[in-house]
Amino acid sequence: MKCKKWIAILSIVIVILCIGFIIWKSNHDLFFRPHEELVYSCNSCSNRYLIEIYKNSGNATVANSITGDVTDNKTGKKRTFYFSYREEEAIIEWIDDSHCKINGVAINLAKDIYESWNH
Length: 119
Known about the structure:
- It is a single chain.
- The chain is α+β, with helices and mostly antiparallel strands.
- The chain folds into two domains: 1-32; 35-118, no CATH class.
- The protein has one helix and eight strands.
- The protein has one helix spanning 2-28; strands at residues 37-43, 49-56, 65-72, 78-85, 92-96, 99-102, 105-108, 114-115.
- The strands form two sheets. A five-stranded mixed sheet has the order 1-2-3-4-8, with no helix packed on it. A three-stranded antiparallel sheet has the order 5-6-7, with no helix packed on it.
- A hairpin with a 5-residue loop joins strand 1 (37-43) and strand 2 (49-56).
């Protein structure tokens, strides 16, 4: 009888931990950031990368933000690489084929991830 009770308690704890992890992961993963209004889309000089910038409108409790996705046109892989809270627009400058500056932040499109609250 005690064994069944401990198994039930352990099962409940595991379920609660799994739900907590999913909630935590969704708040700390750029994949789950909003992508509302596409405001800019541009290929690099050699067409290796495609950058898409989205403006995310805030509301009464959340400020506006900018989210950026990069697609590697060679492999077809798309990932979110840029998220900046409390920004209205994105000014993009290409440094070379795989590097750009977004609002003054230099980014290597092959590997970098930028989140404004981590800098």
